[in-house]
Amino acid sequence: MKQKLVVIGNGMAGMRTVEALIESAPDLYDITVFGAEPYGNYNRILLTPILYGEKRIDDIMIHDFAWYRKHHITLHCGPGKTVVDVDRNRRRVIAKDGTEATYDRLLIATGSLPLILPIPGRDTEGVMSFREISDVEAMIAKSLSKRHAIILGGGLLGLEAANGLKQRGMNVTVINRADHLLNRQLDNEAGDLLKSQLEAKGLRFELGCTIENIISRNGHISEVELNNGSSLPADLLIMATGIQPNIALAKNIGLDCEQGIVVDDAMQTSDPEIYSVGECVQHRGELFGLVAPVYEQAKVCARQLSHRTDSRYQSLLPATRLKVTGIDLFSAGDFNGGEQCEQIVFKDPALHIYKKLVIKNRRIAGIVLYGDTGDSAWYLDCLKSRTDISPYRDCLIFGRPPLPIAA
Fold first, then answer.
1. Is the pTM of this model over 0.85?
2. Where does the NADH-rubredoxin oxidoreductase C-terminal domain lie (predicted)?
3. Which long-range contacts link 55-59 to residues 24+ away (Cβ below 8 Å)?
4. Which of 83, 205, 259, 281 is the most exposed place for a label (fewest CB within 10 A)?
5. What CATH class is the domain 3-113+243-305?
6. C-alpha torsion sign, points 133, 139, 144, 145
7. With pLDDT > 90 as the criterion, what percentage of the chain qualifies?
């Protein structure tokens, strides 16, 4: 008789786990999935092309409804199917509309929530996040009749939202508390280069400041006041200030939680029958917001669920590969460096290319690549393996040295 696996969360982390489990042990579980959105599993990273108008919802589906039927997976999805309680003694999951399912193993993949800053006026109509298909649909609807869009947050999500709304004809200003864009992924010089290129596309920026008040007129946002004393007209405000693990359910049912749901190297929670993966988890003190480590967690979890208990999750070296409005970026390691570090820098302003390698003790300690990321994999391998780069230091900035020609 098959065991019962229930998955709370129909996003990329949970479904990647299910997909891997089906590949390795297709007959082990009867699988039931609960999701809060009325869709199959879609690629959240591709919400931006929907905003641009380049893709439709069907184009970003990873697993459509037919896939669930093909693999005999019971899918409960939509607002009423949000799981509100788990009876751990009876191993039973309860959804908002009363739908129930029993489990032998439970996987919590509730992801993350957008961080909404406690700014006065934040509940005004026209203030929103950029996280789900419904958010994109609302942004598109606003762009048809509104002129002024404000993006709070100069990270990847904020810049993509800004570019999308600009392409839909809105006047867009990005506000960022840090003094340069993508401050977690880029150094000042690369951030300034990015700002110049985006300004050339018509975006405006207010850096080194934030919003301190949201003004409304007739219940709808009309203006934002900045902490530098200035104000800007606003018909739409997108909060893109980060994410926080969605751990409310896990906390309510008594699982160990800190900033995220605490899991061990087997992706197991404090309850041995309950596993967790994705942006909701905390592993060895670390939280996750990128796809690569989340998919690695999914692989490990699937192996554990299929009783291959030799698999253990090890945190990956943080490396960020991004494409921001068509511009390739890459960063890894300590790309700002310190007193004991030296830097090798290459710039070609005409081609919008900037490369910086931080060297410490004859080894690469940090990498920033802007506009040309072709050698990123090799640089990252050198960083991970702590390769002594002395033999080719003089030409290191130009990428992997050619192999010697055999005599």
1. yes
2. 318-386
3. 57/133
4. 259
5. alpha beta
6. positive
7. 86
